[in-house]
Amino acid sequence: MNLLEEDFSNNKENKTKNIIKIIIVFIILIVIAIVGLLSYMMYLEGTVLRVYVNDAENAEVKNLLVFEEDGTIYVPVRAISTYLGYNSYSGEYSNRSEDNSKCYVESQEEVTNLTLNSNKIYKLNLEKNDNNYTYIYMDKPVKAINGELYITTDGMQKVFNTAFSYDQENNRITIYTVPYLVSSYSNTILDYGYTKLSENFENEKAILQNMLVVTDDKYYGVINASDGTQILECKYDDIQYQEATGDFIVSSNNKYGIMGTDKKTKVNINYDNIELMDYDTGLYLVRRNNRYGVIDLNGGNIIYAENDRIGVDISRFEENDLKTGYILVGNLIPVMKNNKWGLFDIKGNQVVDFEYDSFGYIANNNREATNLLVIPNYNVIVACLDERYTLLNTSGEQPIRAFVDDIYMEISGGEKHYKMIANDKEYDVEEYLDRLGVQPVTNHTNTTSNTEQSNTTSNKETNNGVNNQTVEENREQNNEEQQRNEGDQNNGDQQINEGNQNNGEAQNAE
Fold first, then answer.
1. Domain, as residue range, for 98
2. Cα–Cα dist 230/263, whole Å
3. 87 in a domain, yes or no?
4. What is the DSSP track for 335-366?
5. What is the pLDDT of residues 80-89, one digit of tens each?
C-alpha cells in the first residue's frame, strides 16, 4: 500500500469517527430535548386543575367551580346536584313554588332546604314518619351569582353529604359521596373483624367524619375508618349518629342514652327513647314509662317526663311553613297533660297552664279557610278552648284577651291572610293586632313586605285626601293614635267579650 492509499484510508476512518461523534451528540441533544419537553409537560400538567368525583375525573364539575380571591370555592347548588346523586328544585319542599331565592335538593333518603343569604340549612329524613326537620349551619350563607344559588364547598359537604379535599400542591380536587364511600369500606371492615356497616342512612353519614358504625350481627359499635380502632365498643343494641352534634344515641336493654366520640357518657342510658328537638338550645325529647319530657345535653330535666305528649303534629298545618312542631314561634314548647295543653318556654318555665283543648285551627265548614297554627309575623299561636279560639304570644299572654268563633288562614293570589270571626263579624287579624299596638316581628321577611305594602297604601290615601297636611299635624296624629291604642284594645276586646256573653246568655235561655 502506497502513501496515497494510506492517507485516503486514514481520512475515511477519521470521517467515520467524526460522523459517529456527531450522531452521538445529536442523539444526546434529542434525549435532552425530550426530557426537557416531558418535564415541561409534567409542569404544565401540574398547573392544570383536575377534579375527581368518586375517583373518576370530571371536567364538567371542574367547570362549575368558582374561585374567590380569598380562596373560597363556591359551587352552584342546582347544577352540581345531578353529579352527586340528587335532584334539585326551586322553592321549598313543603311549600312548592317557583321562588328562585330558595331551593331544595332531594335524594331517596333526605331533603335539604336552602335560602338565599342564610347559612342555616334544614334537613328532612324521608325514612322517618314525621315532618320535623333538623338543621345545621354552613360556614357561609348562600349567595347568588348570575341569578343562581351558590354555596361553599363546606356547604356542599353538608347539603349533599360529601367529602371534599383540595390538594393545592398537586392541583387536585377530590369529591366522594356517601354511597361510594360505603361501598369502598364494605370489605375493609371485614379485616377489622366486623360483619358489615350499619345500613341506617344517618349512621352512614359518620363516614364523612372518618367514623364507621359497624355491627357483628348482634351488637353495634363505632370505629375509626383509617385504622379500625374502637371509638365505641361493639356492645350496643342500636346506635344512631347525630349529624348536628356529632354524638351518638345508643341503646342497651331497650333503654337509650347519649355517648360522645370521646367515650364519655353525656346522658345515662335510662330512657325509653331520645330524640334531638333543637340543635341551638341543645334540647332532647325523652320518653320514660310512656310519659314525655325534655332534657338538656347534660341530662338535666328541663321539663319532667310526666306528660302525655310534647309537640304538635305539623302535618295538619302544611301552609304554615313550619319546620318543627316541638318549638313554636322560636320559644314555646307545646305540652299536653291530662288531655289539656299548656306551654313551656325553652328554659323550662311553664308560661301557660294546662287549660286548652288544642293548639291550632282546623278548617271544617268554611271552604276558603285553611288550617292555621301560628301567625309568624306576630309570633302568636292559635289556641282552642271549648270550640272557641284565641291567640297566645311568646310570653303566654293573650294579646286580644278574648275568645272568638274562628281564627284561620285564607290564601289569595299566593298571599296569606289571617282572619277571625267574632259575633258574625270578620276581622283581619294582623290589622286588629296593629290597632291594639302589638308589634310585628321586625326580622321576619314577610313582616317587612307586609308592613311596607300597608305603609304605601296608607300614604297614598293620605296624600290624596289631605295634600296640605303639615309635619306637625302628622306628629299630632301619630300621638293621638298612640294614645288611642290602649283604648282600642279595651274597647275591641270588650265588644268581642260582650258579644260572647250575649251569645252565651241566649244559648242558656234556649
1. 52-175
2. 10
3. yes
4. EEETTEEEEEETTS-EEEEEEESEESB---S-
5. 999 999 999 9
